[in-house]
Amino acid sequence: MAIRLTNTQLSALSKTPQRKTYTVAIATAAVVVLLIFFAIRPAVGSILDRVNENKKLRDVKSQLDIKYENLLTLNKAETDRAEQLKLLDVAMPTSKNEELLLANLMGLIERNNVDFISVSFSSGSSKSTLDTATLGNKTTFMQMTLSVQGSRQSVNALVADMENFPRIINIKRIAMTPRAEGGLIDGTEVKADIETEFYFYEQ
Amino acid sequence: MGLQGFNLLKQQPAPPTTWEKIYIWILGTARVIIIIVELIVIGAFVTRVVVDTQGRRIEKDIENRERTISGFEESIVRYRIIQTRTKNYKSIWENSSNKAPVMAELNSLLAADFADLRVSIEGDLLTIRGGGTIERISVLEKAVKESDSFMNVEAFEITTEEDDIISRGSFGLRAIIKAVNKRTETQQTEIPQIDPNIGLPADNNGN
């Protein structure tokens, strides 16, 4: 229904006894509108914003809690596995530490009743037999060539010990030839040249 | 003196005009709306206070947690290094050479009476050179071909020399070693038992 109010009607309305009530009614309607647009909306909006912000903060806190829990777990693991970590320091040292490797190698040579001929070390100028992904981050290799002589079985035992040694000795090449002198010509006594790689973590 | 009329019928109010309807609505429903709106505003205020308090408490918790974690800064660096070293060690161990079992098998195949025997293992390529009786050479070639450890077995540079009693010759044998870098489960357990899978929280670089 269309509201038609002429100036005369308005004028008449303003002169009626309910004039004050009409004014209050209009003011009330205005307040309702104002409250809805300028009070409820911003209030609810700001609450929702804060709720979202709190949610993000909770996520951050949850991540930090996980991080803290992980750190506690790692701390405990480090304490519990102190012995193994000591072994890791030897097995994957943070320096070349070829002296210790050589000392152990001499022990293996002696244990397997093989005669030591020579050993030489060189830094990895050539490419490693292992790819970069296998070597991993910051792991460097060195090359070592070991010459020994003894029976084929002894050399084989030495190779087995070397390959199972905690400080990884990766054998690239083995060349066995008849022992140079004093050996049997039938090939049971051999000279073995063993080209290897060993690794360390470069900090 | 005029006649004063009276009406016995019940008075019927005139139907409300549009303005009267609005007027009635404003005095009735709108007041209720205002009360509700005011209650909502009060509720919103209270909620805001609660939410603000919660937010401040979480911020404080985060601050405390960060302070605690910052005490681990040196340890985190150490843990990362240990984890990388362990991971690299495991990877290298699993991919490094395992030639000893093949050499042991080869030793069992090589007869003692071969002469000038030269054996070379480079990567997965096995090369044997030597001399012996033709019969021995044939036996060796057959054994290598039948072995599960070798494939693509190929004889080369075979020469023979006859004498009165037996036929001798020199030979070359080439083969590819299968699975030269595969370690058995038993061997894998010999590596130090350091669990590389303990998760470290990501650093700022996402590592």
Structure description:
The complex is a heterodimer of chains A (203) and B (207). Helix content of chain A is 54%, strand content 22%. Chain A is of the alpha+beta class and 203 residues long. Chain A folds into two domains: 9-80; 93-201, Ribosomal protein S6/Translation elongation factor EF1B (Alpha-Beta Plaits). Chain A has a four-stranded antiparallel sheet with strand order 1-2-4-3. Chain A is rod-shaped, with a radius of gyration of 43 Å. With 207 residues, chain B is α+β, with helices and mostly antiparallel strands. Chain B has two domains: 18-96; 100-181, 2-Layer Sandwich (Gyrase A, domain 2), CATH 3.30.1360. In chain B, strands 1-2-4-3 form a four-stranded antiparallel sheet, covered by helices on one side. In chain B, strand 3 and strand 4 form a beta hairpin. The longest helix of chain B has 42 residues, at 29-70. Chain B starts with 17 loop residues before the first helix and ends in a 19-residue tail after the last helix. Mean pLDDT of chain B is 79; it is low at 189-207. Chains A and B meet through helix 2, helix 3, helix 5, helix 6 and strand 3 of A and helix 1, helix 2, helix 3, helix 4 and strand 1 of B.
CATH architecture of the largest domain in chain A: 2-Layer Sandwich
How many H/I helical runs of chain B?
Answer: 6
Shape descriptor of chain B: rod-shaped
Weakly predicted, low-confidence segments of chain A: none
Structural class of chain B: alpha+beta
Could you give the order of strands across the largest sheet of chain B? 1-2-4-3
